[in-house]
Specification:
Elements (H helix, E strand, L loop, with lengths): L1 H64 L13 E2 L5 E2 L6 H7 L2 H7 L19 E5 L5 E4 L3 E2 L7 E2 L8 E6 L6 E6 L5 E6 L9 E4 L4 E5 L4
The structure holds zinc ion.
The site of zinc ion (ZN) has 8 residues, from loops.
Length: about 220
């Protein structure tokens, strides 16, 4: 008799156990449902925000590359190539510039270095043409405005377009000077001084290594 009693008791226990599991599951669902709802309330909007942020970044990026036709673009935000094509500002990391430039170009253009006088490629260049930025190709100076300054660096009395060259106050080396950088990529070009010839009285003293040269007549 004893074994069957035990068996019966076991059967009852299993039923009770099943009931207990079932009710515990129901309880968990009851308690967890609001928790899931809460998680969805916080996680979904934040996903959405991340997505919105991402699409905003994409938009900013594409606006930089090519704005939509009906979009109003600030006149200071774009430039013209020699062929008259629209050029947008160039923003790159130091690593990207390093991959694109030689070590010396990087030193001068991105770290405001200076080439030694009378050593550059263009200080004595007398050919007709356009000098462009060695970093981004923006037209900067016309050979018509180049003159012999005797400094050993290519010198011009005016840029091809005032908006293509940006001026920055430079107080390095214990002097107050005006640094000039490319307005499109902010690459260091040189300095501008007020001891130039007529008609402007300015001397744009530029590193050859910051420049490329496009001879006139070349397509
Ligand atoms: Zn540039």
């Amino acid at each position: 008799m004893a074994p069957s009693k035990t068996k019966k008791k076991k059967k009852v226990d299993t039923g009770f156990l099943l009931f207990k599991i079932k009710s515990s599951l129901e309880m968990r669902i009851k308690f967890l449902s609001p928790l899931f709802a809460l998680v969805f309330m916080f996680v979904l909007p934040s996903c959405n925000q991340a997505q919105q942020k991402h699409s905003q970044q994409e938009k900013a990026k594409s606006a930089l590359e090519a704005p939509e036709l009906n979009e109003v673009v600030d006149a200071d935000q774009f430039f013209l190539s020699l062929q008259g094509d629209t050029l947008y500002p160039v923003v790159q990391t130091a690593e990207q510039w390093k991959a694109q430039l030689t070590d010396f170009e990087f030193r001068v253009l991105r770290e405001a270095g200076t080439e030694r006088a009378f050593t550059g490629e263009f200080w004595d260049n007398k050919k007709k043409g356009i000098y462009t930025c060695g970093g981004c190709g923006l037209p900067l100076f016309d050979s018509e405005t180049k003159y012999r300054s005797g400094s050993g660096w290519p010198s011009y009395f005016q840029p091809i377009n005032k908006k293509n060259v940006k001026e920055i106050r430079d107080v390095s080396l214990g002097m107050v000077r005006t640094e000039v950088v490319c307005a499109r990529c902010e690459g260091h070009l040189g300095h501008v001084f007020e001891d130039g010839p007529k008609p402007t009285g300015l001397r744009y003293c530029i590193n050859s290594v910051s420049l490329d040269f496009e001879p006139k007549g070349k397509k």
